[in-house]
Design brief:
The chain is of the alpha+beta class. Helix content is 20%, strand content 30%. The protein has 7 helices and 17 strands. Strands 7, 8, 9, 10, 13, 14, 15, 16 and 17 form a 9-stranded mixed beta sheet that branches. It has a 4-stranded antiparallel beta sheet with strand order 3-2-5-6. It is elongated. The two termini are 23 Å apart.
Length: 237
Amino acid sequence: MERLQKIIANSGFCSRRKAEELITKGLVRVNGEKVTDLGTKAKASDIITIAGKTLKNEDKEYILLYKPRGVVSTTSDDKGRKTVISLIDTDKRLYPIGRLDYDTSGLLILTNDGELTNLLTHPKNEITKEYIVKIDEAVNPTLIKKLSSGVIIDGEKMKADRVKIKKLDKKKKKTIIEIVLHEGKYHEIKRMFASLGYEVTALKREKYAFLDLKGLTAGEYRHLTIKEVKKLYSLIK
């Protein structure tokens, strides 16, 4: 017996949070009976319907996408913009693990494995992400070091695990910086640099935990291997 929202998320239908929302709205039935209690448990053999659709367990799929700029990290967009789902040829209902901003490129994982999604996005597991930041300005190295000790933004402390200046061209007024974080707060990197007086002109996620973009160009993707999926699960604390 498992909590209903976990069963729904693990099926790939939606995230656990969305499943909880569907339950509280009275859109979920177990063996024909409406369920609204988030503590409800069910068995794999139970017939679960969501808004009249019977839940089916899909085969798990794990995609590593090199997200281009100008693409939204959602399954649909009311503004008609291209989504990450439109870049992938699949009949599975996939969801991105976390998000990258519309104008941010780089590594994004998509899957219908709700359990893995919840585990990797939980703050306690501290999954590291490595980014490359471009700034059209010659930055002050001493100032940038402040990001490692942490900066206070709107009463909240934001801190980088590691910050390294990869290239500083004072003549051309260009700087390339490598920054590693384990959090995923809203516009975190842009806000951190803005607090120091710098505007991020380009942002790319190079790594997610041990995964990287090797062999891919923007818009391309590949399937994760079984070994890689197991390694992702092994990161859970």
